[in-house]
Amino acid sequence: MPQITNVPYDSLEIGQTASYSKTVEERDIQLFAALSGDHNPVHLDAEYAAGTPFKERIAHGMFSGALISAAVASTLPGPGTIYIGQTMSFTRPVKFGDTLTVRLEILEKLPKFRVKIATRVFNQNDELVVDGAAEILAPRSLQTVTTAELPPITIG
Questions:
Q1: Alpha-carbon distance 105 to 53, whole Å?
Q2: Integer angstrom CA distances of residue 100 from 3, 81, 91, 139
Q3: Element (H, E) at 70
Q4: What are 116-151's pLDDT values in tens digits?
Q5: Chain mean position to CA 83
Q6: Terminus of the chain with fewer CB atoms < 10 Å: N or C?
Q7: Is residue 119 within 8 Å of residue 66, measured between CB atoms?
Q8: Contact criterion met (CB below 8 Å) for 90 and 61
Q9: Cα(88)–Cα(75) distance, integer angstroms
């Protein structure tokens, strides 16, 4: 199983960056709809979505938000990070098959182990799809953790 090492508060530097990528697949959107309860037909029904300004199904906006959370938890600062808050502006639709890259940048170190991080998501064409910032509580000490193996998940 893979191991992940965090970056503790004292080692974080303004301007430090990290990224995390994932391609949006049908299965992801089905699982996200099932988990969240968001069954908006613009995400799940091609015929309905064809009549929207997008002309095709799009991913849930908060799916991109979940990828931001994954990036913060697994890359910068990594394991032991606690979310305090998040702002997000959705600037472009995310389509099935898009490869999303979350780009994190340390913006500010605040008192009591708090850190402000730029959280931007880009598609494979380097177009900004989500612009935002997070405030997190950074881990205080260096940790390396083994990631848990998830059980197989089936749909239907």
A1: 32
A2: 23, 22, 13, 26
A3: helix 61-74
A4: 999 999 999 999 999 999 999 999 999 999 999 989
A5: 12
A6: C
A7: no
A8: yes
A9: 19
